[in-house]
Amino acid sequence: MKRVTAILLAVAASLLILPALLLGSYGYALAVAVVSGAGFALLRTAPQSKWSDLLLIAVSVMAAFALFLGIHPLFAVVAITLFIYAWNAGLRFGHFDRSPVEDRAKQQFTLQMLAVALVPSLAVAFVLSASLYVRIRLSFGTGIGLSAAVFLTIALFIGFARAARRKED
Amino acid sequence: MGIGLSMLVVGMLLKHGGMLALAVPPILYSCLCVISTLQLRLPKLHIQHSVSRHRMIEGDEVEITVDIASEFGDVGRHFISVIDQLPAGAQLIEGENQFLGSLLRGQSVRLSYRVLLPRGKHKFSQVVVTAWSRWGLASRMESISHESVIIVRPKTEPLGAISIHPRRTRAFAGPVKANLGGQGLDFFGCRSYVPGDDVRRINWRAYARQDNLIVNEYELERLADVSIIVDARLQAHCRLGEDTTFDYSLRAAASLASHFLRVGNIVGLLVYGDIVHWVFPGVGKTQERKIFDSLATAYAAEKEVFEDLRKIPTRLFPAQSQLVFVSPLIDDDDVEVIALMIDRGYSIILVCPHASTWEAKQIRSGSSAQIATRMSNLRRSLFLDSLVRTGTRIVNWDIAEPLAQAIARDLGVSFFRRHS
What we know:
The complex is a heterodimer of chains A (169) and B (420). Chain A has six helices and no strands. With 169 residues, chain A is an all-alpha fold. Chain A has two domains: 2-135; 139-169. The radius of gyration of chain A is 19 Å and the shape is globular. Chain A starts with a helix and ends with a helix. With 420 residues, chain B is of the alpha/beta class. Chain B is 31% helix and 35% strand. Chain B is built from ten helices and 19 strands. Chain B has a six-stranded mixed β-sheet, sandwiched between helices. A five-stranded mixed β-sheet of chain B has the order 2-9-8-4-6. Chain B is elongated. Chain A binds chain B through residues 56-57, 60, 63-64, 67, 73, 76-77, 80-81, 84-85, 88-89, 92-93, 95-96, 99-102, 105-106, 108-109, 112-113, 116-117, 120-121, 124-125, 128-129, 131-132, 157, 160-161, 164-165, 168, and chain B through 3, 7, 10, 16-19, 21-22, 24-26, 28-29, 31, 33-35, 38-39, 79, 81, 83-84, 86, 92, 96-101, 128, 130, 132, 134-137, 139.
C-alpha cells in the first residue's frame, strides 16, 4: 500500500510541478513538492488520521490555484483524482501494511490498484478537458432539458441507494 | 463531496470552466463510492484456525495454520485480504499472516506462519477480512471470531538436590527427612527394644555391650508441604533490557516447583503483588501444569495494599511447613516479616535474585563505577547477613549465573560439606 500511495502521490505532484516549472512558478512548484512530501509521510505513518483529510483539502486548493497560474485543467484534474485515490487507498487499506504478505500477491495488488486509479482518472480528465472546448447554445428548452436530466439522475441515484440499503437490511 | 461542491460554487461564481471541471472528480468519486459501498457484499468465507501447540515454553516457536475456503454467493470475483490478527507481543518469525488476492467460489488457500510468543496467555481471537470493489472505490471489513489459546510458561532448568527441613511433615512416605525415628534409609539413633519391633533391627553389638536389647532407628522420610511465594510487587523489581528481575523470579519459581513436585512433595504457589493468586497445594503432573499456567499469566503490579510483605496470607500455608520465597526484597520491613514467619514455625528458603553483574556491565568502567559496584555489593551482603541471623536459608542468585549453580552453591550438598 505504501508503494501504491507513493506512486500515486508522485504522479499527482509531478503533474502539478512540471507545468508550474515550465511556466516559471517555482514557488508554487516548491509548495506542491512540500505538501506532497508531507502527504506521503502522513499517509505512510497515520493514513487514517484527521490530518490526511486536511491534506486532501490542501491539495485540492493547490490544484485549484494551479488553474490561475495558467496550468491546463487536464493536469489539475488528473492530479486531484489521483490524490483522492491515494487518500482513499491509505484510508481503506492502511491496515494491510502491518501484516506481511507474499511478494507476488503484493505486486499483483499494486498493479491492480495503479490500474484502477490511473485509467479512470485519465478518462475522466480527458472527457472534462474536452468538454471545456465544447460550446453548447443554452436556450430555454435546452436548459429545461438539462435540468430535468440532472434531476432524474439525482433521483435515480437516491432510489438506487435506498433500494440497495433495503436489500442489505 | 464537500470539496467538490465548494469548487463547483467557486467555479460558478467566477464563471471559470476549469474550476467547474475540477469540481467534477471529487463529486463523481463520492457518488461512485456510495454506489460501490452499497453494492459491495462481503464474501462468505469458511476459516479454520489451527495451532501446532497449545502449551509451550518461552522461547519456543509455534506454527499456525489458517485455512480459508471461499463460499461466495453471487458476488463474483473479489480482491480480498484476510489477516490473522496476532496477539500483543507476538513476533512473526517465518511466513505471512495475511492473504491478499482473489478467491473464486470453491477455492481455498492456506496461510502458514511461525511466531515467537513471550510468556503469557495468548489468544488468537479474530481474523479480519477486508473486501473491496472492482475499482477500489469501496471496501468492507469484518472480523470473524475464533479462539485459539496458547499458554507460554516460563523456562525451567533442572536443579540438583535441595535439602529442606520443615518442622512438620505429612503422614505419608516421601522424600523429606522428618527428624523422627522410624523406617527409613539413614541411621537416626538407638532405643530399647519393645515387643513388636522387627527382630532384624536389633543392634546386636549394643546388646553385647549393655545386656539390653537395643534396636536401630532410621530417620523417617515423609511428604512435605512446600509453598512457593513469588514477589510480584512492581517496586521490588528492576528492568534489565527487555526482561525484568520479575521474569527471572518466575523462571526460578517454575524450576523450584518442578523440582519439588518431581521429588514427590506437595507444592502450592502464591503470587503476591496484585490480588492473591493462589494455587492450592497438590502433587504430580497436573499440579505442575496448574502452577505453570499460573506463572505464565503472572504479572508484577503496584498496589498500595501489598506494598510490604505484611499482608501475606499465612493461613493459606500449612502450619510449620516449608516456604520458598522468590523475592529481591526491598527493605528492613521485609526482613522483619520473614523473621516473624520463622517465629511462627515456618522454614524459609529465600531465593534472592539480583542483577549486580548486569548492572556493572551497564555502567562505564572506572574508579567511580568500581566504588559504586562495591558499595552495592556491601549493602547487599549486610542485608542478607541480617536475614541469615533470622535463620533463613538464602540463595544469593546473580541472574547472570544459572539458578542450579547458585542453589548448588548455597543450598546443595557442597554447602553443608563446606559449613559442617
